[in-house]
Write a structure and sequence with these properties.
Layout lengths: L5 H14 L4 H7 L3 H4 L1 E4 L2 E4 L7 H13 L2 H9 L26 E2 L2 E2 L1 H20 L12 E5 L6 H9 L9 E5 L4 H8 L7 E6 L6 H15 L4 H4 L3 E4 L3 H6 L7 E2 L17 H28 L6 H15 L4 E6 L7 H13 L17 E4 L10 H6 L6 E8 L5 H20 L3 H10 L4 H11 L7 E8 L2 H22 L8 H16 L10 H15 L1
Parallel strand pairs: 5-6, 5-7, 7-8, 8-9, 10-11, 10-12, 12-13
Antiparallel strand pairs: 1-2, 2-13, 3-4
Helix pairs in contact: 1-4, 4-13, 6-12, 7-12, 7-14, 12-19, 13-19, 14-19, 17-18
The protein binds 6-O-phosphono-beta-D-fructofuranose.
Length: 546
């Protein structure tokens, strides 16, 4: 951390020294307007920070930190198409995927809108044509199923969004997602599919990822078990930046939907990687989702820091991580349709900001990304919420919920909403030993037993959470929610001065796996492997023979 920034961090630490022993119960008691003071809204979207352990002074100091770390200038550099991904010498322009020409985005002096519009039109036309049956297999049969073969950013965004917008996916083929190289995944997913009427989408930015290429090769062979060489091309499409790779694989260029090196894999779902989403809900809904993304992009680009939703979400995260010392963040959507949202944000955040060197290459001195995890409510309440309420670690939570459901079971929705509201309240306020004891005595328990049980039933409370609410999970609302988290990750990376857009950490494991795979295939000698690996491999090979 630069010396100039030390006073900003010191001011925040002084805030925490003051707040560490203050209970949220007392903060609310002293300031009944806390909700108004610590919540921000944009249309129907509200972020409620009132149950975070902050006060006005800390809030001001967080904003001062954002200013001092040049968040605004760094944000402007991204939108200007500067090569802010310095280790790969690339621009970071996923915002261009959901822009309109008037937004004026360009990379290396070249406007992005014509490229984006042409590709968007192509893949959305393709999606609608598959949905309405005007594109069929070579035999004129409708596609009944589509399998997206991709991993990481080429899988998680589409899976998450397809689940999230299930209510909008009423027509078209059934969608499946194959990511893992584990043959069990392939075997299970393809068991009931018909090769003649299954369309394969090979989704890989690089078109070199070993898991995806292995699955794609096996899947193409599976198609060929039913179709001839001249027919098979009609059952294939690729979503990739690597045209040479797709050609080598045998795909014709008109079945390749491209994107560009200025779109990171985990930020690519608004481009052709989003084709499965469009196949599920159609072009018009897809465009609504893009409009939701753009709505937050423009807000992020122009709103003052103190009113800027992604900036505030990021600053609260900085407070939890760097000042309170919380090492994880739980994302809890109270919406079954957002069941893959925690996994999606997990990759976006941890692959972006799981870094320990600054952009300059010097080591970071504080903490960077927390461990992101989560599960839908209310399921999570009946599995791990015990620890969040009474465990020894403080786990900050982002609670997410739409006010209106897209199904007719309103009584269920009301109960879900009651749980959503109850959890953040219980975490914040807890329950004192006195209250617990009184409750037990009231229920007729004898005093000695009530005294013994009281420590177990006491809730310390003072556990922080942010609540995010909006009207309804439409494609537009989904776009806004995702962009909110994307820009949050950007702001945190800017404050930590790390490169949020490379992922060298994934490489070491990949290289090691390739080397070991050569040994297993008998193409290289085990002697070059580490002794522990040699022994484990030997043990597994013995088990394979037995
Ligand atoms: O393993 C990391 C990663 O590089 C991710 O960043 C990316 O989303 C994923 O692999 C898949 O990469 P590709 O789309 O090139 O197959």
């Amino acid at each position: 951390m630069s010396k100039d920034l030390q006073p900003f961090w010191d001011a925040l630490k002084a805030d925490w020294a003051r707040l560490e022993h203050v209970h949220l119960r007392d903060m609310f008691a002293q300031s009944p307007d806390r909700f108004t003071d610590f919540s921000v809204s944009k249309d129907d979207l509200t972020l409620d920070f009132s149950k975070e352990r902050i006060d006005a002074n800390a809030w001001g100091n967080l904003l001062a930190l954002a200013k001092a770390t040049n968040v605004e200038a760094k944000r402007d550099a991204m939108f200007a198409g500067d090569h802010i991904n310095n280790t790969e010498d690339r621009a970071v322009m996923h915002v261009a995927l959901r822009a309109i020409a008037d937004d004026g985005y360009a990379v290396d002096g070249k406007a992005t809108a014509p490229l984006v519009d042409e590709t968007l039109e192509r893949f959305l036309t393709f999606a609608d044509a598959v949905r309405d049956g005007s594109i069929t297999n070579a035999r004129g049969q409708l596609f009944t199923d589509v399998v997206n073969i991709g991993i990481g950013g080429s899988d998680l965004g589409p899976v998450m969004a397809v689940n999230a917008t299930a209510a909008y996916g009423t027509e078209g083929p059934n969608l499946h997602f194959l990511a893992n190289v584990d043959g069990a995944d392939f075997t299970d997913k393809f068991a009931d599919l018909n090769p003649a009427t299954t369309l394969l989408l090979i989704a890989s930015k690089t078109f070199t990822t070993i898991e995806t290429m292995t699955n794609a090769t096996t899947a193409k062979d599976w198609l060929l078990s039913e179709l001839s060489e001249s027919e098979v091309g009609q059952n294939l499409a690729a979503l990739s930046t690597n045209l040479k790779g797709t050609q080598t694989f045998g795909l014709s260029d008109d079945r390749v939907f491209g994107f560009w090196d200025w779109v990171g894999g985990r930020y690519s779902m608004c481009g052709s990687i989003g084709l499965p989403i469009a196949l599920n809900m159609g072009a018009a809904n897809f465009r609504n989702m893009l409009a939701g993304f753009r709505d937050i992009d423009l807000h992020f680009r122009t709103a003052p820091l103190a009113e800027n939703l992604p900036v505030l979400l990021a600053l609260v995260g900085i407070w939890r991580r760097n000042i309170m010392g919380c090492s994880t963040l739980a994302i809890m959507p109270y919406d079954q349709r957002l069941d893959r949202f925690p996994a999606y944000v997990q990759q976006m955040d941890m692959e972006s900001n799981g870094k320990s060197v600054l952009k300059s290459g010097a080591p970071v001195t504080g903490e960077t990304a927390p461990v992101i995890w989560g599960e839908v409510g209310t399921n999570a309440q009946h599995s791990f919420f015990q620890l969040i309420h009474q465990g020894t670690s403080i786990v900050p939570v982002d609670f997410i919920m739409g006010a209106n459901p897209d199904h007719p079971l309103h009584a269920h929705h009301d109960l879900l909403m009651a749980n959503f509201l109850a959890q953040s309240e219980a975490l914040a306020l807890g329950k004192t030993t006195k209250a617990v004891q009184a409750e037990m005595l009231d229920s007729g328990m004898d005093a000695a037993r009530a005294k013994d049980l009281a420590p177990h039933r006491t809730f310390e409370g003072n556990r922080p959470s942010t609540s995010i609410v909006y009207d309804k999970l439409t494609p537009f609302a989904l776009g806004r929610l995702i962009a909110l988290y994307e820009h949050k990750v950007f702001v945190q990376g800017a404050i930590w001065d790390i490169n949020s857009f490379d992922q060298w950490g994934v490489e070491l494991g990949k290289q090691a796996a390739n080397q070991i795979a050569s040994v297993i295939a008998g193409k290289a000698s085990a002697i070059d492997l580490h002794v522990s690996t040699q022994n484990l491999l030997k043990r597994m090979q013995e088990l394979q023979k037995s």
